[in-house]
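Problem: given the chain below (75 residues), write out its structure.
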Amino acid sequence: MNLGPTELIIILAIVLLLFGSRKLPDLARSLGKFKKGLQEQDEQEDEARKDAPVVKNTEDRPEPAVKKPEDRAEP
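Solution.
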């Protein structure tokens, strides 16, 4: 999605009209906290993936919960 300068100015004008000049700093602060929280969660998930064991051998993998139709015995 590409936003040009005209679209950004229109969006900012609408936000200013909706929230008013007094609420904009609070809105920006809460958006910053939200973004920071998402980044921290993403970093935690990346660390968890790095620490997770890697299964390289198919013998170490558990059996699938649902068998393939060709593996089922027909009645």
